[in-house]
Design a protein that fits this description.
Strand content: over 45%
Order of helices and strands: EEEEHEEEEHE
Helix content: 10-25%
Number of helices: 2
Largest sheet: 9 strands, antiparallel
Shape: globular
Number of strands: 9
Length: 112
């Protein structure tokens, strides 16, 4: 199931099963025929300060919560992984593929 709980100009909360497409290097949250492309959402926020919170849908166990600059760091030639501050967000996404999650992403960049 995917439910957009709150959508503002600078924040989005999604619920659904996280899927990883290793061929296209994308992550989606999906259910009941609806899909949100998490990769597209993260790519829009690259180089911005963001807050990302990931919880299990059932039990609400906190999996990841971090604030910082969203980057794709190079780890090998032609291989880049999402990092939030010094934390490897991509590893968290990989480890939780197939699970039902609540994903909250907020852009916290202050316009000057």
């Amino acid at each position: 199931m995917i439910i957009i709980i709150k959508q503002g100009e600078d924040s989005l909360i999604l619920k659904g099963r996280l899927k990883s497409d290793k061929v296209n290097n994308t992550y989606t949250l999906s259910g009941y025929g609806k899909v949100s492309n998490v990769t597209d959402i993260l790519n829009v926020m690259l180089f911005d300060n963001v807050s990302v919170k990931i919880q299990q849908m059932h039990g609400r166990k906190l999996i990841f919560y971090e604030n910082g600059e969203l980057l794709k760091k190079r780890i090998l030639p032609k291989t880049y992984l999402y990092h939030l501050g010094e934390n490897n967000l991509e590893l968290v996404l990989m480890d939780n593929a197939g699970k039902e999650l609540i994903l909250e992403i907020s852009n916290t960049t202050v316009e000057k």
